[in-house]
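Page 47, continued from p. 46.
Same chain as before, 230 aa.
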Amino acid sequence: MAGIASCGLVSLDHVEVVPNNANGKDDQKQFQEPEEEDNVDYSKRAQWLRAALLGANDGLISVASLLMSVGAVKTDGKAMLLAGFAGSVAGASSMAIGEFVSVYTQYEVEVAQMKRDKSNGGGNEKDIEMGIEKENLPNPFVAAFASALSFSVGALGPLLAAAFIKDYNIRLLVLVAVASLALVVFGGVGAVLGKVPVVRSCVRILLGGWMAMAISYALTKLVASSGLEL
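Result:
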C-alpha cells in the first residue's frame, strides 16, 4: 500500500495540465499584435494630395476656360492653341511660386511654435533642432513641384483637344467633353486617395468646371458683341 501510495504521489507530482486548445488559441490571439488593416495617415497624405489635386484642377479648368474664351471670339485653332500654351506656362509658374511661398510660411510658423514649446519645456538648443528635424513638417519644395507638375498635366487635355481638331464647332464640343472627363477622373482619384465619397466629389468638381467654362465663354462673347474689336 505504501508502495502504491508512493507511486501515486510520484505520478501526481509529474502530472502536466494540458490547456484546452481553444483557450490556448484565444490567449495566443490576445498577445498577438492586431493585423494592420489600414495604417494610412490621411492627414499626412493631405499635404501633397491637396497640392497635386489643386494644381491639376486649376490647370484643367483655367486652360479650358481660357480656350473657351478665345473660342468665343476666334475660330482659328492656332490662336486658341497659343493662348492655351501661354496660359499653361504662366499658370504652372504661378502655382509653383504661390505654393512655395504659402507652404514655406506654414513651415516657418510651425518651426517657431515648436521652438517655443520645447524651450518652455527646458530643452537645450541642440536637442530642439534635432527634435524639429524628426518632425513631419511640410516641404515647400515638394509642394511647389507637385503644383507645377499637376497644373501642366491638367492643362494638357484641353490643349490636345484644341490642337488636333480643325472644325470650330467640333473643337469646342470636344474641348468641353475632354475637360468634363478629366474633371470626373481627378475628382474620383482625389476621393479614393482621401477616402471621401466618390460621387459627391465628382459631381462637385464637374459642376464647378462647367460653371467656370460657361462664365468665361459668355462674358467674352458679351464683351466682343459690345463692339470691342479683338
